[in-house]
Amino acid sequence: MIELGEVQKLEVVKSSEYGVYLSSKKDKNNSILLPKKQVPEGVEIGDEIEVFVYKDSEDRLIATTKKPKIKLGELAALRVVEVTKIGAFLDWGLEKDLLLPFKEQKGEVQEGSEYLVGLYIDKSDRLCATMEVHKLLSSESPYKKDDRVRGRIYGINEDIGAFVAIDNKYQGLIPKNELYGEYAYGDEVEARVTKVKEDGKLDLSLREKAYKQMDEDVKLILEKLKLKGGILLLKDDSDPEKIKKELNISKRAFKRAVGRLLKEGQIHLDEKGIKLIER
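Structure for RNA-binding protein, as requested:
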């Protein structure tokens, strides 16, 4: 059977001026065209060719030897080449661009930008892209606690956190209390696995373990003090949101770093905040 949206080996059953016709060994009654310019040199009737099957501009099944950037069941970051009244068209490595319908978009899609999408077959039996990628992600990842992973943000919920497609395959979440900095849909992140949940989904952190992260936090506070003329209007009882806005770290991390700087004699505290000790 010829499978739409899949890479498969098909048998050459007929040759014509337009190219060669291919069929599945299980169903030789149906055949599709592989255009002449893509037919490998020396191919004969009975040979097998590995092709990808999609639909041309006239909605006919057609084969190509080109490898698409995405297949059914996969996710990929694809670039928008055009935004039209019916949706956006994406570059997926083939002559005919891939449609991302408006109903499958999340937020405003802009020409030239990349978006994480999945591939599906719509009700008209056509291949289309979707930004609703959570259904295509697996919870059976090979990762364990403290592993480093890379992924792309595919959703942000202010009450929950940022949803991440790890390796474009697995489900991950950066909880809101771990989400420091400005992030948006489509951003690539590197994170640490903090927990593997019972359902297999991964909790992530953008920060290192506390003892490693403290070095970075200490450096950050010292740099901020120098930029502010040696004075930082933050204290142990400062509001967590004020600390996050000023330093982009949690109050707990702030207190750890300040404690170390005090112990090392690099700062002192007064009623206004932190002062750098000049050496």
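The chain has four domains: 7-64, 75-134, 137-205, 210-276.
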